Structures are given as structure tokens and as C-alpha cells.
Give the backbone structure.
Amino acid sequence: MKRISVDIGGTFTDIVYLDDETMELITDKVRSNPEDIGSAVFNAIKKIKINITDISLFVHGTTVGLNTVVQKKGARVGLVTTEGFTDVLEMARGDRKELYGYLWKKPPPLVPRYLRMGINERSDYLGNIIKDVKNEELKEIIRKFKEHNVEAIAVCFLHSYANPENELNAGNIIKELWPEINVSLSHQVVREFREYERMSTTVLDAYIKKQVVDYMSELDRNLEKENFKGQILIVSPGGVLGIPAIKEKSIATFSSGPIGGVSGSAHISKFVDIKNLVTTDVGGTSFDVSLIRNHIPTVRHQSELLGYPVLMPGMDIRPIGAGGGSIARVDTGGLLTVGPDSAGANPGPMCYSLGGKEPTVTDAALVNGIIDPDYFLGGEIKLDIEAAKMGIITLGEKLGLSPHDTADGILTIAGNNMTTAMKEILIGQGYDPRDFSIMSYGGAGGLFASVIAKDMSIASVVVPVDPGVFSAMGMLTMDIIHNFSRTFNQTMNSIYIREMNEIFREMEKRGREMLYDEKINDSDIEFERTADICYEGQGHFVEVPVMNGDLTNDSIPEIINRFHNLHKIRYGHQMNAPAKTINIRLKAIGKIREVPMQKFSETDEIPESAFKGKRKIYLKGSYDMWEVLDRDNLASGNSINGPAIVEEPHSTIVVLSDQSLYVDKYRNIIIRSNPEVK
Amino acid sequence: MQKPDPITLAVVLNNLISIANGMQETAFRCAVTTFIYEIMDCCFGLLDRNAGVIAQSHGILLFLGSLGPATKKSIEIIGRENIEPGDVIISTLPEVTGAHASDALVFMPIFYKDEIFAFASTKSHWQDLGAKDAFPTNSTEAFGEGLRIPPVRLYKAGVMQEEIWKIIELNSRAPELVWGDMQAQVAGCRSAENGVTELLDRYGIDVVDSCIEEMYRYSNAMIKEAIKKIPDGVYEAEDYLDDNGVENDPVKVRVSIEVSGSDITVDLSGSAPEQKGPMNGLLISSLAAARAAIKALTIPEIPANEGFYSAIKVNVPERSVLNANPSAPTFLYAWVAQIILDVVNKALYKVLPEDVPALSGADVCGCGFTGIDPRTGKYWGTLTPCLVGQGGDYYSDGENYLNPLAAGACKNTPSEVLESAYPLIVEKVEFIKDSGGPGRHRGGVGSRTSFRLPYPATFFSFIEKGKTPHWGLFGGKEGLRNYALVRSEKQGEFETLKHPGVQLEKGDTVVVTAGGGGGYGDPFERDPEKVRQDVINKYVSIESAEHDYGVKISPDNFEIDKAATRKLRMKR
């Protein structure tokens, strides 16, 4: 099987080609084009000179949805809600993000008040319909929407998660009256309670739908023109999805990029036999952290996009503003700060010579010798070390520090920002950092991973092959996952077995249909059931695995028991209170043929060609001569003591003096701290 | 003490702030009531060995400012020498905590090398501590507002003191919820203990101490620099609370702020005396409010710590509404603290016109229900804020539907959650047209929430700023005032602000009006196009556009009648 993946990022677009049979692997990067996102796909394909007609699988991560929101280019959306709740979208939750900020404002609503219309329908929280949807009311609303040139409609009724009948009826009436309009129904976007969060997600879906659908159609057409005959799968926060599913739920294109890396990490974790990983993806502007427990990425059900909440299950990836482009400044109180502002790709760091006026993390690494100015992107871009120095010197004067100490400080603070973010995530979920290893990737990941590991007493770091394009690589390892959820707010009790069985069956039926459409055979279909359960009164639930097949009277006590145990593990105690289900969830999984990992024979002999010479490097307050190694020429089985710099075209990896590196049989680099000499 | 290098300083400070955040994260995970994880009626802080604030989490602003003094007072009472590693100290005594008796202070010492290095301290609302009513808005003495626990050790050297817990348990209507939230607070403190120990192992006590010193010094320098920008002078203002909960007269709060160079003194003399009803402040909360008020106007963006607090001098007169004696009822203390922020703004708006907004709805408009759910036979109770509009400001219109700064971290409760969890129907939650005070920058609009009861229940409310104005600035007009309207089959129809409890029957309704913010600047100077947009979006009526803004808009096509508008605006 021949497959490719293309991952569009803010700065670069990465491409990976893999032939399962010959294990031929090609990776490369081209610049992204925010004005015409799709163009980078074909530039990348052209650059690696492959024959697209042979490819049977094309996996794609795109920023089209995100860009639509960032650039405010979405559709003019009309919103239909239950009468009395039209303002929920603008109300949000009424809290402030800045504690002392009198002048703080919410992000403006994506639908202005005059395009938010209520209709006299109502359900209760159990899904009993109290008032039906009436044709005439919708007719009048559509007349107004047309008058105001509305381009997409979002429908969100109170308690539609419990019974979607009214939303479905409204959807049908709208389709009848206005067949060509895009409609997003809240229960189809996300079937969970909390009206503001569901409404926000639904409106975002409607807002980006046209752009996403157009993009997907164009991609499909253009690939067809190139005689592509394989399958196209798009990256979503849970797994990959076929284009029809994405057209239905456009919101699923959000946060595509980092997902691939996390999935790739989970894949590798099985081969290297490390159960728990904290993944760190360091690019130009952001540092994305996520956790893998027992080879499975942890999941989160709500995230945020430019201040708008998005209710959608997906890998739990937390970004902080720290990366190669993060800007270093001295604040009004005289403290050195790094990020969250970033110089991005343009103008980028000062050393890019594209007009950057403030020093960044990359400039600091360059000035202290960690990055080779002649080997950035394998030499494609020549870095201007003098420009970087100027910026660092100016900053150093404000701090009373030498240029080298200033640059060292920038790296220390950037690294520390990453460490504190990681600690908050790990400790916030009750985990001990020492039970984890780091999976480090992204262009700037290698600069920090070994330092973070040391700071957090983490024993080992895994750097996969070609970490600079690892997210694209990881996309190839993703299965198709359709997530279904349903709020089912009931005390855990056997009397609800019939209803729960019905819900699971219904979700499985729909999942199977969607997977068939995506050319998945029965033998490659799997279902994973869970239920969000909490103690009565609690606000935070635990996602508890539920057995497949028909639930019986014995199932409920067993699920409750699982819940007690998980609660104890996670929170340190269990309670003597009734358990309650909040949501019922199903993952319908379509297995994609697993990506093999090529094994190499191991040798402890280090090829002469791996040594690139020594370089003077300033780190943590001292100047030393460091060994510089060429990763492409290191062989499996090689092991070297730090300090060392390992260079490859898209990344630079630091190994500290009390650490050693080892190249495993899959050519991953494993960095370990040396046992302390007493 | 040696000054730390700038890099170590930045790293250590980041870690300290992260430890305070970690306390909150940990507690949220374990909490069992909406007070902590949904409404966020709680706060978490890391304090130095003298109970000065090192760092705090994103929580209730008024709570945060009082954590330090409350912890300090508790330590004095217990005796520093009696504090051992593994102790957890709690208190609900208002004169100690600077809060009403349903808020509990929970803190623990963090020992390092046999000495106290820091304290991890938290405060949270507890579900029920046996007050005479769930929300006693008409109490006339401290007794009956909830169990008063002086600072005592809930844990001694790591061992839970069962007899202390027994007292709490027997005095609460919902002991299992109190237990869960109390444990959540303890878990938060323990996480800080781990974080601090790790940091000290790493950098050593001297370095961390010098970093904290340096942070205080530079925070102090920063706020002094900001104070310098306020012209020297004495600035005075007074404002009023509606009433004290049992009598009808407005309650005066007066401030005189003296600025001289980088010194600032907030003098609250001249305010009303101690009140008969529960509208009484506490010294600690009044100090916290005055300091928060100055910080918000000078350097809102920098994390708060002891360095700021010490730069602001505050005088709170004894036996006044701001500083009641221990036997006085204080259930409504938070509203006294709220108005301190507002009156400080009123005193300074002329010299800080870019920083001070017009008055918001100035209240969380809290209301709730208690009862027995006939479906389960169990006691239920809920409290939900109804959200007001903010005042217009120098740059833009006031925000719609947003909690006032003092309670800024609090969220509303989603209607779908309310209806699922309690026997309650939310009929609507909508903006109120014309509720924002007219101004060049309009006040934000408030909201109207309508509840209907499917079964009998008791309704209570504590709504302020229903009689006194949500003032505008520089010619801006006041916003709509707050109130609740009860429509009851048996009790009839009546408006209310503070009510300790009225029995309602099935089908009765309560409509809470959370008003708007005041306007900023002369409404006749508002850009007519903006007025037109407001009319299209129904924030403002056509009548108000004409009457308040002098803009004539056609009801047919929403076009501005330019000639008529010119005439209207000339006339004045």
C-alpha cells in the first residue's frame, strides 16, 4: 500500500510518502499559503516527485476551518433557537477572563442579535415535547433571513440532546423552503447538554461550513484531475474521517495539525514499549502538550477556539504560546519574558532577515551555537547570525547581562514555560511526571526536550525519525473514528437498561453505515462504548468503559464498580453516593491498515560519517566544545554520551552532558539521563 | 540578601504562580458542589511565612485580597509555635475570615527543613452550615447566619480530628457536600505543599526567598509608578446601598482618596454606622476591596501579590458598616465590599477617565430556591446569579450580561443544567431592551430570567442596586435597576430585592431583572449609525433612540432621518 499525508500548518506544509512494501519513506516541507490554503497540497506533492495515481490513501490535515474563523471570512449565519433563549449565544457564561480588567470584553458573537430568531417550541429535559415546531413561524424567519442575505442557518433548541425531533422537523421545513441553504442542527453537531457550549459549537459549524465544503470539493476535484484513484481521509480531533462526514460536521476539521503527532506517538509507543508518554510538539508559535496513557491518547470533550467554546471529543491537546518564534522582551517591571507573542513565519525570527525586529528563541539558540546557521532546513534557508546577535545584545543591555547569558536566559525561560505547563497538565489530572517519558517532535522540540526531562526528573525522551514532519507522519497511523454522544442524565439503575441498549444500538447502526460509506469492511469495524459517570452533585465526570453487546441486569453494578475504581485512581477517594450517567458515548472505529515500522539491524559501531565535528556551544552558563552528529548517518544500536548536538534537516536535538543517546532498532533516538555517579 | 539573577527570578516566579493554579486545578477535580467548580465561589493562594500573598489563582477577587489577612489572624489565634507539619486549620468565624459564616477558610502550613516556609490557603462557600434560612437576608445578629468555627485544627500532624468534623456534620443540612468540598480544599493545599517542596529542593530556600522579596519589591515599585500618574489631590465620593436587609433606608459609603506622589490613602471615614441588618462589612474584606479597587485602576494586568497590597494605605473606621463588631450580622458583607470598589471608581473617574467605566449593574442578582423534590423526597437547593450589564467606558460600550468585577470569575448556571438537576423551569433568559444607560458609549444591557415552579418551593433572593442608581459618567445616563417580580397564586404579585424565603406553589413564577450598566459620555454625541445598529439589534428602542440619543429612525426601513436627527440634537 502506498500512502501520503499532507499536513498544512500555519508556517509550513509537511508531506510524507510511505510505501508499505518497500518501506520507502519520503518527507519534505513547503511554505504554507494562508491566502490559498489548498495550493500547498499540490506544491508539496510536486516537490517530492511521486506518481499520485499509485497512491491508495491520502490523509490530510487542513487549517481551512481555523483560518475561516481567524480571518473572519465565514458565512453570514442566521440562528434559530427556542423562544426566550436567542441571546444565549451572546451571553456566554457571564464570566471574565481577566480578573482585574474592568474593560475586558467577550469575543463578539458570530451571529448578531437581529439574525437570532426564537420560535415557540419547547421540550423538557427528559425529551418530552411540550410544544411542536410550527411551519408558519419558520416561514417568516426564512423570509427575514433571505432579506438579510443569510448564507447558513444554525438551529439549537433547548434540550434537543434529549430528543432531536423538533430540531429535525425544523431542519426538514427549512430544507423544503430553502433547499440550497446549509443547515447545522445542534444535536447533529454535538448531542450533549449545556446550551451555550452546544450553540457555540453549532454556530461555528455553520460559520465555516461553506468554506470547508468548497475546500473539500475542490481538493477532491483537483486530485481526481491528477488521476488520483485512492481514498481521501481528513484529520479530525478524534480520528480521520471521509469527506462526506466532514461536509456534514465541518467543525470536525478544527485543530487538525497536532492530532497527527499524538496519534503517531501512540503508535510508536507500542513498538518501543513505553506505556505512558507526554508528547511535546514545539513548532514556531506553540508548544502543544498531550498525554498518552497505556498507549492511548487521553481525550477531552471541550476545547476553545479564539474564545469560543467547542464541544467535541478529541485528543486532549493543550497549547501554550512557546516555540521557535516566541519573542523575548523585558517587561515594565524589568522581568525577562518569552512569548506568548510570536514572530511567526513572517517576519519570523531576526535571523531570517525578513524584517523581524525582536529577538526570538531561534535567535537565542543560534547565537549560542546550538543551531547551525548553514544547516537550517538542511541548508535551504541561510540564517543571519549577526542580525540575531544585535537583538540579543539590545535585550541584554536592559537586563545587565552578557549576550550569551541573555540568550541562555531566553532558552531557560522558554523551557521553563514548557515545564510549568506540563506540570499543570500532569499534576492537574493527578499524574506523577516520573511515570512518563517524553515524546519530542516539531521543528524546535529537540532544543528543549532533554532540558525539560532533566527539570522534571523524567527518565527518557523519545525522538522519532524526522521529528520536524512527525505530525504528518502520524496522520498515516490514524484510524477512522466517528464519535457519537448522547446526554443521558439518569441515576445508574437497571431500569434504564432498555433505553441504554437502544441508544447504543442506534449509534452503532449509524456508525456502521458511515463506515461502509468509507469503504470499511465489517472485519475492520470496532466499537468502543463509554459512559460519563459522576457522583450525584458532582460536576466533573469520569469516562467509564462499557461492555459491548446487550447490557443485562448484571452490567449496571459492574459499570458502577468500574466507576468507583476509576474515581479512586484518579481522585484518590471514592464516595458513598449514588452514581449518575451524564453522557453515553460510542466510538465507531474503522481500522486502517497499520503502518509498519522498519527494523534495522543494530551495531554499536558509529559510522565515521556521523561525526560532523565539534562546535563551541554556550548552555547553562558555560562554554564547551560539543560533539555535532548527523542523525541520518547514525546507525541503529549506536550509543553516545552527551554533551552532543544531533542535526537533521528539519530539527536540532540537544543531548546534555549528564545524558546519553541511543538509536533503537527503529532508528528512534532515545535520550536517557545517565545514572548519577556517587 | 543577594539579588537573584533575572533568569532565576523569572523561572521561580513562574513556578510559584503555577503552584497556585495547581491548587485550584486539584480542588476543582475533587469538588462536589457547583460553588467550587461551576460558580467558582472560591479562591486559592500561596502565602509566604508571614501570610503575605505570593501568588493566587483565578478566583473571586474579594476573596483573594482577604486570604492573607484571614490566614494571618488565624495563625495569631492558634499561636504560630503550636503549628505543626501536617496540620490543616479551618475557620468560618467572620471576624477572622473576612467573610460570612458560610464561607470557610482552610489552610495548611508548608514546612521546609523544620520551619514554616509558606502557607497554602483557600476559601470557599460551603453548601450549608445551619444558618436559620439558606440565605438569611434579614438576620439581626451573627447567631443564625451559620456555625461559627474559630480557627481550629481539622487535622493535627496529618490526623483528622473526628470531633471537630462531628460538630460541623451535626450543624449542616448537607454534611456530605460540605465534607466533599472541604476535602477538595485540603487536596488543593496538599498539592501546593508538594510544589513548594520541590521548588525549594531545587533552588534552595535563600534563592526562593530572594526571588519572592524581589517580586514584592518590583510589584511595589510598579504600582507606585502607576500611582504617580494620578495627579496629586484629595478625591471624594459617596454612594449608597439600597438598604440593610431589615430597614428601608439607603446605606451610605463614603470615600476620600488622597494621592501624593506615589502614596495613596483610601479613607472610608464618614460611611454609615454599623447596621441592624446583615448589610455589614468586615475589616478584612473592606481592606481587600479597597486595595483591589486601586489595583484594578492602576495595573490590572500584573498578577497580584503582597507587594501591591502594601503600597495602598486604607483607613476603615471601627463600628461602621465597613467594619462591624463581631456580634453584628454580616451575611450581606460582600455587597459592602462591592460598593467600595464602586465608590472608589466614582471618586477617581475625573482623573482616570480612561480607566474608570460607568457603574455596572453592580450585583450578581443572586436568587435561588429550596424545597423537597416530590419525585425523590429529597431536599434540594440552588443558587444562581442573574447577570447584569457593565458600564460604558472611555473606549467602548459596556459589555452585556457579565458579572461585575468583584465576582468576575463566576459563571452562570446553564438552563439545561438547572432544569435537569432541579425541579425548576426556566422560561426565558433574554437581554432587556433599553436597560443599558444611554451614553456616547452605551451601558451594557442586563438580562431578564423567568423561572416557573413545577412543584412547590421556597424562593429567596439577595438583590442589590434596585433602588440606588447604576450611574453614568460624563453625561451618560443611568442603567435599568435590578429587581425580582414574584407572581404567586396565593401570595399575589409583588416586587422584591432581598427576601429570606417565600413559599411558592406549583405554577408560580419569578422574573429576575438584572439591570444594565450606566452610560459614558453624552448620548447626544453617540454616532447615529451606532444608535441605528442598536435599534436594529433591539438593544435600544426607536423611542429611546429619539428621546435619549436624539436620533430619529424610521420604523419601516431603519434608516436615519438625518434632518430630524439634526433638529433633535440642536434643540438641546
